[in-house]
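Hi D.,

Good news: the full-assembly prediction came through. Inputs first.
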Amino acid sequence: MKKGNVNIIFILFLSIGVILLFYLIFNLLHSINNYKELVKLFMTLLLPLPVSIFLAFISSSKKNTVKPQTKRDSILATFIFISTIILFLSIIYQFDRFGKVKFKDLRMIPIMLNTFITFAYSMNYLVVKNLKLSAILSGVLLGFALYIFF
Amino acid sequence: METMEIMETDAQSKVQKRREKFFWIQTFILGFILIVTIFTFLTYNNMKIEKGIKVFFAPFLSIVPLVFALSIIKDWIKTFTDGEYSKGEKIKFSMIALVVAIVFTVLAKLISMVTATEILIAIMIAIICLLSFLTLKVRDIVGMSIITGIAEGVIVYMVFIF
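Then the structure:
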């Protein structure tokens, strides 16, 4: 991830998160038939927002700027990214094999996870600017997208 | 030397402005959540209005003390520090937010059992008055953690228990 490329990568990951969100919501829409369910869905969307804003508030400081990156940094970040995808996918498949219900069929938790990752990723990009955290979050997001669509 | 100082103060004020922005966003989110919660509770329990005058007077129960407090306390905490928080402070304020969240989950459970319209309106307006007091007078990390706790508690009740 070079300094010029980060902007494009950020927009790309954000759009992946938004597309996933719309997909999950349209999957749920046929089961909503009263006001209570609608409020529950809406509150589920809002659940991770205050936490991520609070974390961004508490961890913002003047030291958080984009540092010049060496080759070792970017290799480490790529390694973390790929290993996070593999770890996340293996955990979810283990859950599906041994758990009673599949992860896809839990109604609210996938939406919550998706919004939390998307908000945390954008907060990290805007405020904290930590390369390792960004690698972990994008790995989880991409693994989640791979699991949902395939 | 002077340029260095100017650059440093510039960075500091940038962090301060950013924190103030986050504080306002959090406040608006919490106000929005509370309004949605009021309408949900009002439509859910089949409320009945027995005496209309009681509903009219219910909000003033908490608005009058709020105005009194605002007029007495001139300027309280109004600083967003630009320094970095230490690890102990971070853990402390996160614990405050967690405790407030648990308290408000229980409180929302109690509020949802109320069937009289005037009591429900009085309680919700009291919470909104508390929020506006925090927003106007306690503009600090303490206020921020309390606001986060209230928002999380109400949302957790609405998602998992309601």
